[in-house]
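Record pair follows.
FIRST:
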Amino acid sequence: MKTMSKLIQRLLLNACLLTFLVIPVSVMARSTPVEVQNFPEVQAVEDVHHPANQPYHWDEYRRSEISGSTSLAIGISTELVPEGKKLVIEHVSYKVSSAGFEGAPTVSLDILYENPSGGISWIVTHYLIPQRYQGSSSLNYTGSQPMKLVLGPNMKIQIGASALVTDDTSITGAVSGYFVDME
């Protein structure tokens, strides 16, 4: 009985193999027509979902010369958002460097409003958490973080740091996002 079932298994296996060898693959495989569409190339800065967005990037460096122990406040500011536009900030990064920090600096991002008839008003402050690393000749505190801030006309961002220092100190900052026309 076992030899008979083995014989039947071999016959079925051989029949299957013979079927694959005799019948062409194109007949066995059911094909579905495929349509290929080539799309035009898109530049990296083009926002196809929001074509009205106008890319924005700002960066600045400022250095102060220090002699002796000083409580220093240093900052850098973007330009004002022009009339008729909103600025959407998506990312902020900064670095504060000094060979003479006496403790970690406090780093903040301030949103300011400049009244067209004069005067600057503080709107809000966001405190940023810096990461410390030792450079070749200075101690550095850096940060980089995504965020979503919307600024209206006559508003700007200021990145500031305050610390007790005994040597020259610098701050570098960058902001990126996009302008949108107000309707």
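SECOND:
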Amino acid sequence: MTEAGSVRGSTAPEREIRGYLRRVEGLGRQLLGARFEGAQGLWSFQLGLLSLQQEIQSSLGREKGKPKRTRNFNSVEQLRECLYRARQLGDAFAWILFGLDDHKLRPLMRNSRVPVAQDHKYSRGLLALAELLAGKGWGFPLLHDVTDCIRIGDLTFVRPSGQCEPTYLTLEAKTTITGETVREDGSIDVEYQVKLASAVEFDADTGRILSAPLPRTQTPESTPARARAERQARRMVKASLQQVSESGRVMEIDGGLHVGARVDSASRFHWGDLRRVIRASRQSGYAAFSPAPGIVYAALFSKDGVTREVAERGDFLPDLDKFDFLSNDLPAGQKNVMVIYPVPPYRPSTGIAPGFLPFFLYSIPKRAIFEIVRGQLLLVAMVNLARIAEFLQQKGYTVFRRTKGPRHEALDVRGQIENAAGERFEAELCGFESYVDELVYGFRAIDYLADLVDTLLRSSVQGISDWRQAQPAPG
């Protein structure tokens, strides 16, 4: 919960935060309106976004560096929220450049969170290199530093390929300063040496990809620096192999078996319902809809900013009965479990980045998108995991509910699957509650979950069956 968008005071920190939010909104309008003059316009947009993020990060660092007795903790939280909004805008930029292809983008998200890059000689060297190679025809350079979601590599060159799919060359860059010369006017010329590494072989002159990624063999890690470089290389190889994986095919990646699966679902989206409740919330401050038993989406609106007090009033509580949210027919020992999803999700502190479409790209009016930026509109989803379990059981699956920590519940889903040869297998998806996130943040109909389970189980069973058939006979 944030009040960043509701800042209306006149103190210096409040004015600074309002200015940052206006700049995020201005860049967001430029991106969504596609107001660019060619590739140079895209590059200028990206540099402007990076500069904004660096400025917000510097302000946040100064505030956090104050003694606790003088630190403005409200400003710290508001600056964090401003920074996250700017990073989400960078995520939207990345999703657009990747053509909304999550199969290409998600593998690059599987790493720890990367902080905002500070403006220094080394980071400026990467910018100069990206611009130089772009001018040589390598493609458009997406700087990973402007995103929160891309956590592997330093930059990706996106190259359109006419009638074919675009290519994406992801690179890790190691920058070394080899010399500095001070001019008479006091400016400094800096010479760099940059080593580029990728999971694929590429032409050093044109940047064209020459080979598919190959599994990486284990190499000795004699020093901490080499060990770090080896981990980075293995992550890049793993991500590149996942990007080219085929549905239902097994690949051996990093010592394990990876089964590709792409869900083809005809389930509908609920964008129309969401647009309707957003409009209604502007009239009454609150509106909600339920696309299925156990799922409720709510919109809270205040032109002065949705504060924590407004969010905690509990306007949605009467709707839980009206929308058939709770289950009254649970087995002994089980209970209703409500999970609240803020939309967009909270800042992830560790682990994999959320692989969902950034709210800047939601199919809702731009007015609503920038009301979210300003903190005037808050969207919330409430899900009862007991109802999710009931739905999957009605589809013929066995669902196991187990405790996962003091405040969390996990779902494991098991089903009987037949492969192409007519053999029947029992397959299980552990930790299925994480897939519920895809339903919620994708605003999909609940039938999507059944399609998801069927695709994942069926792809795994068939993929493993084919892989076993292809193994050489022992002896």
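COMMENT: The longest helix spans residues 38-64.
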